[in-house]
């Protein structure tokens, strides 16, 4: 018995008008002719472009080769499958009998393809801007990690250096929410620059990740 | 002396607010640090997605593999260079001395990359919807050709329709060579448009195949 796809939609942050699109995105070709192969084609191209744009903006100093490598790493099968697992996407998949028996729910290729297809479905349901928000939400942590890896410094360190170089006071990090299941918690952290009236938020699967994400958001705010 | 980039913008159907972006899109890396390599990265991803979407919509019956092949054919270097030539993009390029000397203006790779970069610049200047209009205008004929090819019409039929629609005389097909072993013959056929002084060749394992191949070659010649 599959989980209700609307829970997946909730996790993605998009309520589908056309739930048939979401259903199709979750249907592997082993389950019949009404399947996600064409949506996957669309979603793959869509993700490729949106991640390209995000990297382009985040790394104004990176050359084309570096941008290409970063993108390849973010959109490769294993990476997408990891994001799909974070969404428990396997619980919603419709598979044929053979794939069901052989553990298709957990297979990287099937998970990655289905994630692409579901994002293709979001695009058809709601257009470019909404999909961009969904995709950026989904990849936020990975993009932050890429930033950290690229600079060799994590966002908290970079924020601290930015502030010190301008003789601003250092930020406070406060956990403002802990949600999700007990074994799958989501932390929300505020990064506060009190004397400047600035505040940025971040979420993550640990307090540390949420702090890094909040620091990244603050950096983006003050660098503007 | 380069042509005025605003004429290129006119041909594309988009007047740039930020002309520096257009200028950057037209600047090859041989001309300095302010060049089009990063814009090309963005434009490549952008075109890939927009063509994917256009094919997805046009060919509701095509499977993922067919869509992928069609896209690869539309966005390959030679195809983009052909579109760039149609825009006389070479006239606007900024090249370093070495590339200027060795005919960089006419090189497929430089033209294709610059077209991608210019479309990336349109996106940054005007957003998704405007760029989609520009890209669809640019690829309209190629997409139509893809439709014709996909529709199952053979090259001889398409050539005949193309000529009739322009009230040109019909071609002559002449076998000009039969080579190969007796049980493995190779036919060469010329497709002649005598009053236009046009000639194209095709080869194949039968006269019929060679004629189709020659018709295809003629189509490619006259559609330029």
Automatic annotation (TrEMBL), chains A, B:
The protein's Enzyme Commission number: 3.1.26.3
Residues holding Mg(2+): 40, 113, 116
Domain of life: Bacteria
Names of the cofactor(s): Mg(2+)
GO-annotated biological processes: mRNA processing; regulation of gene expression; rRNA processing; tRNA processing
First-level EC class: hydrolase
InterPro entries with a match to the protein in the record: dsRBD_dom, RNase_III, RNase_III_dom, RNase_III_sf
Keyword Nucleus: no
CDD domains in the record: DSRM_RNAse_III_family (cd10845), RIBOc (cd00593)
Main localization category: cytoplasm
Residue stretches making up the DRBM domain: 154-224
Residues annotated as catalytic: 44, 116
Keywords: Cytoplasm, Endonuclease, Hydrolase, Magnesium, Metal-binding, mRNA processing, Nuclease, RNA-binding, rRNA processing, rRNA-binding, tRNA processing
Domain RNase III, residue spans: 5-127
SMART domains in alphabetical order: DSRM (SM00358), RIBOc (SM00535)
GO molecular function annotation: double-stranded RNA binding; identical protein binding; metal ion binding; ribonuclease III activity; rRNA binding
The keyword Hydrolase is annotated on this UniProt entry: yes
Entry GO terms, CC: cytoplasm
Catalytic activity of the protein: Endonucleolytic cleavage to 5'-phosphomonoester
Cellular localization per UniProt: Cytoplasm
Record HAMAP family: RNase_III
Oligomeric and partner information: Homodimer.
Summary of the function given for this chain in its UniProt record: Digests double-stranded RNA. Involved in the processing of primary rRNA transcript to yield the immediate precursors to the large and small rRNAs (23S and 16S). Processes some mRNAs, and tRNAs when they are encoded in the rRNA operon. Processes pre-crRNA and tracrRNA of type II CRISPR loci if present in the organism.
Family: Belongs to the ribonuclease III family.
Full protein name: Ribonuclease 3
Organism: Thiocystis violascens (strain ATCC 17096 / DSM 198 / 6111) (Chromatium violascens)
């Amino acid at each position: 018995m599959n989980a209700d796809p609307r829970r997946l939609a909730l996790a993605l942050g998009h309520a589908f008008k056309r739930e048939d699109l979401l259903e199709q995105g979750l249907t592997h070709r082993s389950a019949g002719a009404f399947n996600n192969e064409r949506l996957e084609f669309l979603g793959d191209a869509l993700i490729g472009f949106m991640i390209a744009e995000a990297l382009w903006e985040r790394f104004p100093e990176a050359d084309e080769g570096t941008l290409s490598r970063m993108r390849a790493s973010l959109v490769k099968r294993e990476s997408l499958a990891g994001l799909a697992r974070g969404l428990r996407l396997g619980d919603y998949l419709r598979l044929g009998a053979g794939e069901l028996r052989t553990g298709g729910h957990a297979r990287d290729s099937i998970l990655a393809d289905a994630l692409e297809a579901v994002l293709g479905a979001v695009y058809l349901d709601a257009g470019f801007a909404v999909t961009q928000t969904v995709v950026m939400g989904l990849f936020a942590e990975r993009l932050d990690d890429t930033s950290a890896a690229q600079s060799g410094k994590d966002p908290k360190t970079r924020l601290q250096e930015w502030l010190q170089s301008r003789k601003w006071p250092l930020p406070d990090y406060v956990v403002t929410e802990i949600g999700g299941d007990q074994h799958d918690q989501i932390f929300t952290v505020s990064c506060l620059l009190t004397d400047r009236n600035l505040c940025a938020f971040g979420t993550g699967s640990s307090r540390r990740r949420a702090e890094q994400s909040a620091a990244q958001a603050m950096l983006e705010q003050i660098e503007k």
